[in-house]
Amino acid sequence: MFASVYIYRVPRQNVDAFLSVQREAAAIYRQHGAADDETYAARDLEPKYGCAGFMQVLATEGDEELLIGLTRFQDQAHRDRVMARVDADPRINQLYNKVTTLLDVGRIVRGEFERVA
């Protein structure tokens, strides 16, 4: 499996609107072949078990809520094919433009990961 991971810091007053956009985007990703696309809300970010907590390394500002988006693909080649189709879909650009009104996109953290175990 291969995954794209996004960490979002969303002002609380925009969370519902952001999740609405995320649901629309998830449907587009799935329509173009993604294995899955899910968004998770933070529930416990405190340090435990000798580990640092998320808030120690990913600070939020004031009233922001931390959300994580996870899109899964069969492998990197599958990701590349799906993303080429998603990027060509005009609906995704419209949704991205909505996101820019809901949060500071420059503070989104992203990365891609391949399953190794």
UniProtKB/TrEMBL annotation:
Q: Name one Pfam family in it.
A: DUF1428
The protein here is known as ABM domain-containing protein
